[in-house]
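dumping this here before i forget
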Amino acid sequence: MNKIVLLCFFILISCKKTETEKHPKIIVLQPLGNFQSNAANEVLEKIKEINPNVVLRKAIDFPLGSYYKSRNRFRADSIIKNLKSKIGVDSVIVGLSNKDISTTKGKIRDWGVMGLGYHPGRACVVSDFRLSNKNKKEQFYKVVLHELGHTEGLPHCETKTCLMRDAAGGNPIDQEKNFCKKCSTFLKSKNWNLK
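structure:
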């Protein structure tokens, strides 16, 4: 009798997926305001290369209370707090904006940024407002990857060519080529399909 119970137990656990088996999160792209649908579709297609579980939603208005009138910007922290409530547990949401966004940095109440993401977390927002017109599409995609890296738990990286490099108030994105070996290894452990 004990052998039969033991055999049934092993059959049951071998049929179940193990808890250590990981699946990539569902990435939800959420255009904000009048963000162009063709630009959102381009990001969608590029992200599919690293994670096929990506969804593009219809554009929504910026969250109420996120507009900072005195600087004509939207508060990135308010945006991601709102977006986080609009997804499931196994998802991460990326707000896509063409408006200027900001956050508090140290003693500076309203610091303009290209993107902001919970670290780690389930929400981030990126903006093409501060990007150069020359390589805007490529730069925007790099900022999306950078913020998604933060949502996975990656901090800023010291490697100058790594996508996780801190912009430090500038726009060094054209110098950034890819994730460095350390950051890439970390993201691969999270089931990112990086080459």
